[in-house]
What we know:
The protein is α+β, with helices and mostly antiparallel strands and 173 residues long. It has four helices and eight strands, in the order αβββββββααβα.
Amino acid sequence: MEGKRLPLVPSDHPVLHKTASKVPKPAEVRGLVADMLVTMKTEGGVGLAAPQVGRSVRLFVTGIGDQRVFINPELEQASDELIWWEEGCLSLPRLLGDVQRPGQVTVAATGLDGKRFTLTADQLYGRVIQHEIDHLDGILFPDRMTDVTKIRELTEEEWQSRFQNKRLHDEEM
Length: 173
């Protein structure tokens, strides 16, 4: 499946602030998925939701370890344990903020093959799943922060270091 890099929509774009529609047929988003995987990798991300590329559909991809596609995902369970973690977002380049989320989640979704699957994730993977589902519900990470004045901007050195480390990690996989 080959794809092309798609432009990311600006953070004030209306598609990022509304609930996305369900995908009626997984096969119909095959090209979009290929493009999103290329875009996520090119941008140095670990997850990307369809609204971030201007498509208001309930679809996201992840790139932690193996690449995975989540169509019409639903959070089925979340742990009671809440964990603070610094988050960033391709829709808000170079900005970071502390967000509290459940430490573990179980999500049900459909894959590109049309089959439903359930996945339990914690650590970074669980965090990415929650962050991307938020995008499908019109929520950006600052909406989850208790104090948005604590958003910080990455320096050029931090940005280059993170992007380079992600690229090296991807090459090792």
